[in-house]
């Protein structure tokens, strides 16, 4: 990836992180930790990978993105707003009455949301259904879905994994955000889904392992996925929960709690410093 | 009764799907390894490329169906009622109901008449579960003729529909020339003393009961309530006003199904006695379907007895 693109995407990822902090602070609730860990991959998806048009969110041949780990909606809303689907002014209305920025994604009311999600394990199935629909219609658009590493404890994920491989859905890419933390502890402590790459490979998927915060690796992974034929691709990204906000990094406690005023100021100051550093 | 045609409503499901498939290339039928039993095998044979088997994974099937429907497909997702409404309830609620997607759930083997497979497979809770999902339409045809009409009507409307079909062959009581309208009850017999509101397999028993009551000088109206939701309030209110007593009859737990739906309307409009015939809040057991129907009181005789109770309760 050239330096210019990397800088552009890094700026966007940082702005997505700021939106996550703005949204969860405004909501006084929500899930900052797992939102912060997917900011980089969302920046890459929405600015480089997906064939989409924010002016025409329902464009028939668009690529689809299903946030299977729907509780990290603050990150998705940040990406969608910054990409132009709706005003960034709406970010602080997250989780407020009458806002279309629901606690979990709502395809009926939020421009750019392709599937309602949030009940874990279901998004990957819906994404597989979309990928199958594209195949049946002879269309070439692709489907992307982001899962949590805790989420893959849901049995339905493996029903979907088996199905997508059996139906040869090579137009489907599942990104597993491996930040190693869930509500009750580390994923090993709670109920280990490791080894994750081997499991997807055993289910018949093409597997790529990357660092979730390395844009070069992200770019290479999606390019590799495009070339895969006859099987779906799983990108297992090793990430840092809470990435970009020092006191939120690698802390279970930031899975589902919002920053208070003081924490908000500190988080935003850190992210602004990051932004200034990037923009020079 | 020897000349009466008897056929299971699930046969109508399979036949109607094959007819729909010929007319509409966007119709996709899904199943979870029960194509022979649910009769989706009829569609599979005619349109193998549009038949998607998820294997034994009903939860995944419902969420895949949701995703498929967003690509313009009219998806019929099929399994036994126990697994379609029961096991996959949360997928139906969140992936299909909440976004109000155009998925039709074809649930066969509803009720106690599943027979020998026993309680694990005798779903008498599906109406209760599906009724509680906002925006869900619930159809429960009485016979093979109405089953086909219900499938066509479901395909024509936009939004989620739960269709319940039975395993057991049942007599044809409806007229194919009479149009099927979702949300409208059909009057099968006029009457003034009591109304029997029946659905599905109990409709033929209700007709039989009305004839028996007539022989005793009791005039019973019979309504075929093929749509459980949205319930036909108008027909229920008219029945309450004009006959003053109601008996409901369904192959479902008396909690949460047709009896509950009718009672809710009656209580809030024209309070009159409502007596429910159904599975009396108990699990079933193995046995021949016709014997089980007798054991659990899903018979014309019981409807007659309950009709008399309802009439006796009139003020």
Characterization of the model:
The complex is a heterodimer of chains A (280) and B (315). By secondary structure, chain A is an alpha/beta fold. Chain A has a single domain (3-279), classed as Thiamin diphosphate (ThDP)-binding fold, Pyr/PP domains (Rossmann fold), CATH 3.40.50. Helix content of chain A is 44%, strand content 12%. Chain A has helices spanning 3-27, 32-36, 39-49, 73-83, 123-136, 155-166, 187-191, 196-202, 215-227, 261-279; strands at residues 64-67, 143-148, 172-178, 181-182, 185-186, 206-211, 233-238. In chain A, the strands form 2 sheets. Chain A has a 5-stranded parallel sheet with strand order 1-2-3-7-6, with helices on both faces. In chain A, helix 1 (3-27) packs antiparallel against helix 10. Chain A is globular and about 50 Å long. The two termini of chain A are 19 Å apart. Chain B has 315 residues and is an alpha/beta fold. Chain B folds into 2 domains: 6-171, Rossmann fold (3-Layer(aba) Sandwich); 186-312, Rossmann fold (3-Layer(aba) Sandwich), CATH 3.40.50.920. Helices cover 41% and strands 20% of the residues of chain B. In chain B, the strands form 3 sheets. Chain B has a 7-stranded mixed sheet with strand order 3-2-4-5-7-6-12, sandwiched between helices. Chain B is globular, with a radius of gyration of 19 Å. The chains are: A alpha/beta (280), B alpha/beta (315).
Question: Can you describe this structure in just a few lines?
Answer:
The complex is a heterodimer of chains A (280) and B (315). With 280 residues, chain A is an alpha/beta fold.
Considering DSSP H and I runs of 4 or more, what fraction of the residues of chain A is helical?
40-55%
CATH class term of the largest domain in chain B: Alpha Beta
- For the record, the CATH architecture of chain A stands as 3-Layer(aba) Sandwich
Count of runs of 4 or more consecutive helical residues of chain B: 13
**Overall body shape of chain A:** globular
What would you report as the Rg of chain B, rounded to the nearest angstrom?
A: 19 Å
Arrangement of strands in the largest sheet of chain A: 1-2-3-7-6
How would you classify the helix and strand content of chain B by structural class? Answer: alpha/beta
Total beta strands of chain B: 14
β-strand percent of chain A reads 5-15%
Strand content of chain B: 15-25%
SSE order of chain B, one letter for each helix or strand: EHEHHEHEHHEHEHEEEEHEEHEHEHH
Distance between the termini of chain A: 19 Å
| Overall mean confidence score, pLDDT of chain A | 97
Any low-confidence stretches of chain A, pLDDT <50, length ≥5? none
Structure summary, number of beta strands of chain A: 7
